[in-house]
Amino acid sequence: xxxxxxxxxxxxxxxxxxxxxxxxxxxxxxxxxxxxxxxxxxxxxxxxxxxxxxxxxxxxxxxxxxxxxxxxxxxxxxxxxxxxxxxxxxxxxxxxxxxxxxxxxxxxxxxxxxxxxxxxxxxxxxxxxxxxxxxxxxxxxxxxxxxxxxxxxxxxxxxxxxxxxxxxxxxxxxxxxxxxxxxxxxxxxxxxxxxxxxxxxxxxxxxxxxxxxxxxxxxxxxxxxxxxxxxxxxxxxxxxxxxxxx
Length: 246
Ligand SMILES: Nc1ncnc2c1ncn2[C@@H]1O[C@H](COP(=O)(O)OP(=O)(O)O)[C@@H](O)[C@H]1O
Ligand SMILES: Cc1ncsc1CCOP(=O)(O)O
Ligand SMILES: [Mg+2]
Known about the structure:
- The protein has 246 residues and is an alpha/beta fold.
- 52% of the residues lie in helices and 17% in strands.
- Strands 2-1-3-4-5-6-7-8-9 form a nine-stranded mixed beta sheet, sandwiched between helices.
- Helix 2 (34-44) runs parallel beside helix 9 (216-229).
- 50% of the residues are buried.
- Adenosine-5'-diphosphate (ADP) binds next to helix 7 and helix 8.
- One of its GO terms (biological process) is thiamine biosynthetic process.
């Protein structure tokens, strides 16, 4: 990796690429946050699709530029849809991300998360409890989000400090971060750079929204506005990241 400021500049350029190329992101998303995630992707400039219908999911995954697999509100039919879409992404070498939502609550969900990770996703993203239990990332970029996001790939660890505490009071900010990472991976082949770009975009937009809002309700709307308005130069000026090599 080159110096941090060169890295941030190139990450900021990936935001411009998302806006220009408008990647299609197929989301196998829990039923609680589907609208929040679709709206967040649209605000960024990406094009979301959301179906989990067994007869359609392969065609949608085939036509998408990236896939996000989120394990919330999991049932047998959703598992089958996820297996079908993940196989398409893997066979077509498309970027895909696994978000092992609440795998720390349910042994069977944990087994399924590990099955998917064994299939070789580009990224695994979860909160601290999920990432601490899920185990080996099988070569995927490991992302543990929280007050500080920690991204680990091979010997590199990047910490993204941007964000706002109100994010933890809006259901779906973690789910949306996975979808934004997928959108950035669709335009930036270096997944560490892509994921850093997505988390900086979301964290800086949240800081702007947090300053203007009076609580979680107004924050949610202002966060979407800030995502839509964020410019690459806002990333360059406001990024707070560090890099360590072990
Ligand atoms: N206290 C906090 N301060 C700043 N950002 C936060 C805080 N808590 C969570 N975030 C951000 O909110 C998003 C969701 O993170 P997290 O709460 O870890 O995921 P989940 O919603 O899956 O539990 C991430 O983008 C993370 O950076
Ligand atoms: C993302 C999210 N956050 C709070 S509930 C929810 C949906 C998760 O579904 P499940 O309760 O099946 O884990
Ligand atoms: Mg949370």
